[in-house]
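Researcher: Structure prediction, please.
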Amino acid sequence: MTAPIMTRPEAPSKGASSPASAPAPGAALPRKRRTNPYSWLTESLGKGVAHVFLIAWAVIALFPILWGVFSSLKANDEIFASPWAMPEALQWDNYVRAWNEADIGRYFWNTIVVVGGSLIVTMVLGAMVAYVLARFQFRLNRPIFYLFMVGMMFPIFLAIVPLFFVVNDLGLLGTHLGLILVLSAYGLPFTVFFLVGFFATLPESVAEAALLDGCGHAETFFRIMLPMAKPGLVSVGIFNFLNLWNNYLIPLVLNPDPEKYVLSQGLASLAITQGYAADYGALFAGLVIAMLPVLAAYLAFHRQLQGGISLGALK
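Model: Predicted structure follows.
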């Protein structure tokens, strides 16, 4: 006969529960967390309402654009006879008349020059000012920053008359250069305010390493720090482009020469002249030509715009 094998009782593991760890008699047991059995229904209803709202908003935003595009491809009689119907025959000559006879082509190139020059000046100066205010501490740092914030809140209507006399005294009234300088100054406060937050959160060690390697402050800014702030630059650049492209009041006052009209002025003039001439097809074609660069810019950079805004909100 074999002797019975005696097994040694295993010691309880550290994570295992033991009678010693059991709650003492009379102690309050932990309360179970109640779950809402209808939480899934509430969440589904919330998502459904949000989707319905977004779809309705998209329809409201897209309907005028599509209606303008379809109207630009109709004849004048068709626009009034069936304004909500699809065009029977595509009238591409409306765009030819708008570009050549209504001078939309000249207004378009004038706008490219003015908006392009203003955007370059605004972005370069705004990025440099924002970098200095975000990375360097000096006595007038905060007052200068608050001065730019006041510039954002100051209504342009109060400054339009003094601007007229200043530009006129400088001999820049009715010139592209005068319009570029004023529009650049108009967009500078928002650019500085938007970019200060981006430059303030960039790692200081990168700039210090560049300075130790022999880079000056200007080289560190243009070669190191400016590319790191690309999301903020793209976002504020799109906002400035839209604002400059659609600006009407400043060109109306400071650009009286019809040969140098920008698109906003040209479209207003076209609405009057072509309205009396009953050439609404050319008028809608001019509106579509003015919308195309804005839509193209958004479609090309909408991901960078959303990413830059989200990054700026987190920072």
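Model: The longest helix spans residues 280-314.
Researcher: Thanks, that helps.
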